[in-house]
Design brief:
The protein is mainly α. The chain has one domain. The chain has five helices and no strands. It has helices at about 1-20, 25-35, 45-75, 80-95, 100-110. Helix 1 (about 1-20) packs antiparallel against helix 2 and helix 1 crosses helix 4 (about 80-95). The relative contact order is 0.18.
Amino acid sequence: MILRLIPIIFSLLVLAAHFSRINFLPLAILSLLMIVALFIRRKWIPRIVQIYLLVGSVEWIRMIFVYVEERKLIGDDYQRLAIILGGVTLFTLLSGLMFETRKLKEKYGS
């Protein structure tokens, strides 16, 4: 069962690292608390984590624009950065879909 949570946990850890890097500690802590919440078997946990991952994906999209603009201003290459962050965005979005699997639906009783 824990194997199905690995993409979700990884996405939340990456979000925690990102928020910590930009000195937004409340969201870094919230990201870590979401990991703890995964081990509580309640119907509402998957929806809360899915919403958080969706908001996290929007943050990654925002950061693509911010970082690409910064790179353009200094005349640096930005395509690879945009591709990597696009992949992180997609992974974060798709990890939220793990809750739609039969096993995780059974685990959380939804």
